[in-house]
Write a structure and sequence with these properties.
It is a single chain. This protein is α/β, with parallel strands linked by helices. The chain has one domain (5-154): Ribonuclease E inhibitor RraA/RraA-like (Glucose Oxidase, domain 1, 3-Layer(bba) Sandwich). The chain is 18% helix and 34% strand. It has 4 helices and 12 strands. The model has no long low-confidence stretch (mean pLDDT 97).
């Protein structure tokens, strides 16, 4: 996939929204893009695992974990599951763990930070719907583009 978020901003201007740069790059792919799917959870990753256990079809899973730094919502096992099921990447408003392992998996993974603590597994939360953090609203079906310069969103696909 060839694109640069800076070029998308230059070419499409007001059509794109720039995500506030609070995320660190943990994945094996620094550049990824795809239609958005969403999950909203609070220190519980059962719905994240359920989502990643479905066919990704090149989508990006946006996980609103409320910005919690107390536990990880994705680790090496879930990153590998995302890759195996065809997800392009993950953007996590929360933490990951197994950072060294995730770096070796060919999937995009952005998160606020790391935490060695595992999350709960009760299944509470919501899949689908809009989620808002980092200065933007993420809506299922809209498109996310991420590279070394940042993350941008658009309501429609910008590149072939």
């Amino acid at each position: 996939m060839t694109f640069a978020t800076a070029d998308l901003c230059d070419e499409f201007g007001p059509v794109v929204r720039v995500v506030v740069p609070i995320f660190r790059d943990y994945g094996g792919l620094s550049r990824f893009a795809g239609p958005i799917d969403t999950v909203r959870v609070s220190e519980d990753n059962a719905l994240v695992a359920q989502a990643l256990d479905t066919e990704g079809l090149g989508r990006v899973l946006v996980v609103d974990g409320g910005g919690s730094l107390r536990c990880a919502l994705v680790g090496g096992r879930l990153a590998a599951l995302a890759r195996a099921n065809g997800w392009a990447g993950l953007v996590i408003n929360g933490c990951v763990r197994d950072a060294a392992e995730i770096r070796g998996i060919a999937v995009g993974a952005r998160a606020i930070n790391t935490s060695p603590m595992r999350s709960g597994k009760t299944g509470s939360g919501q899949r689908g719907g809009t989620v808002s953090f980092a200065g933007v609203t993420f809506s299922p079906g809209h498109f996310l583009y991420a590279d070394e310069d940042g993350i941008v969103l658009a309501e429609q696909k910008l590149i072939p």
